[in-house]
Amino acid sequence: MKSFLCLALLLVFLPAPFSVLPYLNKAAPESTQTSVVSLMAPFSTVQRVVIDAGHGGRDFGAISPWGIREKDLVLEAAKALRDELKSHGVGVIMTRNRDRFIPLSRRARIANKREADLFVSIHANASSSETLGGFEIYTLSDVRSALARGNEPSNSLEAALWDLKETEKRKEAFRVAGFIQDSVEGSVPLSANRLRRAGFYVLKQTECPAVLIEIGYLTNRENAAQLGDSEYKKQLVQAIVEGILNYKSDFERTDGFAE
Q1: What's the rounded Cα separation, in Å, for the pair 24 and 34?
Q2: For residue 18, what pLDDT is reported?
C-alpha cells in the first residue's frame, strides 16, 4: 500500500513532460481520464459493500439430492447479510434481490459503477463425493488475471498503476477472507473451513477487493441439514458479518495499512 501511494504521489508531482497531468486534462480522451484516475485511487474505506447472490432465474446453480436449490439458498443468505450489515451502518448494494438471472459481467459492472469498497459473492458448493463438505472462501489466484478479457492497459504508465492496484486488491481480499474465516471458525460448527484461491470471473473483474464464499456443500448430508436450519443460517450470517466488520475496523484503524 505504501509503495502504491508513493508512486501515485510521485506521478502526480513529476514535472512535464513526465507528469500524468495530461491524462487528467479535460481535453484528454474520456476513457484515459477515467482509467488513470481510478487506477491511482487507493483503497481507503469500507462504506459500500456489494452482496452478490450467485446464480438466479434460469441458472439454478447446484441442487441437492434433498431438493435444496442453490439459487434460492444463497438469495436468502444474501438478504440476511444485507440486513445485518445495514443494521451496523454499512451501505449495501445487491446484485440481485429476487429470483432473476444476472450475467457475471453485469455483477462486476454493478460493483465497479457504484464504486464499491468490497464485493462478497455468496454460493453453495456441490461435489460428486458425498463426504466432501465445509465452508470455503476464495480470493483471486493470479494478480495478472484481471488483465485478461481485453482489459490490458494501453500504455506503460497504466500498466504499472494497474499492477500496483491489483496487488493491493488481492492483498486486501486475502485479509478480509482471513477475518471472515476466523469469525466463522469461532462461531459455527463446520466439518471443514478452507481459504482458497481461484480465478473466478467476478473476482477478476471487480475493481475492489472481492471474495467468493461457499457456505457449504449441498451434496453433503450434514451440510445440507445445517443449511436447512434457520438458527444455523442466522448464526452463519452473523459470523460472516462479524468478520467483515472486524476487517472494516482494522482497515480503517490503520488507514488501510496492514500491520
Answers
A1: 8
A2: 31
